[in-house]
Amino acid sequence: MTATDIFKQSLSFYGRLFNKIFWISLASTLAPIIFLSGSDSAQPELAPVLLVAVSAMFLSVYMMAFIHQFSDSQDDSLSAAFKLALNKVLPVMLTSFVLGLFVMLAVLPGAILGTILAASINDEALRNTLMAICIAIPVTVVMYRCFFAAYFTLVDGLNPIEALKASNQQVKGNKLIFRSLTLLSFAMLAYIVLLVVIKAMIAVNPAVQAFLEGILNVLFMPFMSVFIYRLFILSKQPVTSIDEEV
């Protein structure tokens, strides 16, 4: 099993689910527009912002629940997945909150080290870059090691601390996960390049640009969710030839 195999499996899985998962992805794209459309000021009000955050979290869990439900029992019912999401959204949110706390804790040693190393540097740009690097390293390590925590809560019902520990154990030293996420990063890079190209299309009407960006989001985000879920499931199981190159 290689990262390329998982990528191909995810494409096939995505194709089978597209006619249903498309609607969840579309809702995720439209929800911020709908909730913020009534705000006339440059600074949105607190209530719409909270609605956007809550809806984004729920729809993210809904997407995860739907993919898990289909993978586990071949059930592509959106209503059944909606009920599962309702049951799982609070535990997953709690796990995400605890992960956020760990990330903030990881910022502190990076900030302290960066401050010490940058104390003797006069160039402001270089000093800020060094600070950013020192903070980014521990944050990246924590995010990488705890990457599957929300999935352990959703799929296995683990509490936040158990989920973080389980994710760390699964990811630690796993070359398949590292190579797969590297491959996914290249796919995300291509996605970002396409967004930049769309934004750079000066001759295109802004409304058309927004429409194209929305379509790209609706198409790409579900595939990314499928890929991550497939990687989570397959890397939990004994995998032969796990050290093969991508």
What report would you give on this structure?
With 246 residues, the chain is an all-alpha fold. It has one domain (3-36, 45-236). Helix content is 82%, strand content 0%. It has helices at 3-36, 46-73, 78-118, 124-145, 149-156, 160-171, 175-199, 206-236. It is globular and about 60 Å long. The termini are close together. Residues 239-246 have low confidence and may be disordered.
Q: Summary?
A:
This protein is mostly helical. The protein has helices at 3-36, 46-73, 78-118, 124-145, 149-156, 160-171, 175-199, 206-236. Helix 2 (46-73) packs across helix 8 (206-236).
Radius of gyration in whole Å, from Cα? 20 Å
User: What's the β-strand tally?
Assistant: 0
Distance between the termini: 9 Å
The best one-word shape is globular
- The amount of helix comes to over 70%
SSE ordering: HHHHHHHH
Note poorly predicted spans: 239-246
- The chain-level structural class is mainly alpha
Oligomer status = single chain
What does the main sheet amount to?
none
